[in-house]
């Protein structure tokens, strides 16, 4: 083993992008922590496979307890809790959660429409800021690509999806004889951190019996703080909600919470019941309470599964609500500091107002109008920062603008690291701008 580990140090580590660095500001950081590592070691070391109740009763029970804890912490409506007839499951990723909910929505709709041949009429709706996972998931469950509607957003709505835009698209499709199936509302989009108008979208979806999924993969963690829970207003109108503790909740990859208001919709689409997997002595009282035996294989794509619940349980026990709120607020405060510095520097501009811990900015066009040169300057600036090895960020493009993203969220990231990256940006900006200076500006 010592030779293998030496090879890892020599050959593997130099070629990695170090996601746990406090100077990692790209994508949305995948948090690791000492408690998360301890939970991961327990999960891996015990190596149980809680796909049916009898396979590991305590593991299945712990999962149902943990997802209810999480729902309460985030202020989710009671309808997503087990004791109220809903329930939750720990998936590996949002992509898995999306495929499962799309399958549930599909089968529920096809049951009403009288057969699988009606699948060609089903339509899925999302915005141009929605994660591409939803387009991939729609294809995987058999929705024709031509029936996926990408609805434009604008700066006027903060790049959030509006009910008016959805209504126009849905009414047009209904006029063509199509069937609205599924609508995604996002709190904290990947590119810009935008927030959709959840309540308005939920009310619009109810007109046509659409399944509403609330995707809070990144920003859902912020809802542990009461001052951020307003972003989830209208969640009671959703059929499902998902968020990823492995993004901003100190939980090692992989862990995605998925809650559904009606578990039977999910299990009807995903369940299998071969004789060799039947539980012995399982009992479901059917009274809308948490069942005595939960077969989580029927809540996900694969049959087998990891013991993720113990990892999240250790996180919650170790840091508690107060500790997690402090973790979130530290990052939000650092992002706010960075946003203020960007706004105060006449060379830069904040592209969209910051809501959580993601700041989207760029070098502003000197000529007062956007052109290709402005995008080239910002591309060069991002490349120079990343090439320095002192920070790592990514970009997004909105309305033709090349935008630099600084996502604060690393487990060890402090204000000091954000201050250092601002100093780095200022220096690199001065170097890059020297190459583009012309008598009349850019």
UniProtKB/TrEMBL annotation:
SUPFAM superfamilies in UniProt: PLP-dependent transferases
Molecular function terms from GO: carboxy-lyase activity; pyridoxal phosphate binding
Gene3D superfamilies tied to this protein: Aspartate Aminotransferase, domain 1, dopa decarboxylase, N-terminal domain, Type I PLP-dependent aspartate aminotransferase-like (Major domain)
PTM sites of type N6-(pyridoxal phosphate)lysine: 247
Cofactor field: pyridoxal 5'-phosphate
One GO-annotated biological process of the protein: amino acid metabolic process
Keyword terms: Decarboxylase, Lyase, Pyridoxal phosphate
Top-rank taxon: Eukaryota
Family: Belongs to the group II decarboxylase family.
Protein name, per record: Tryptophan decarboxylase
Species, as recorded: Miscanthus lutarioriparius
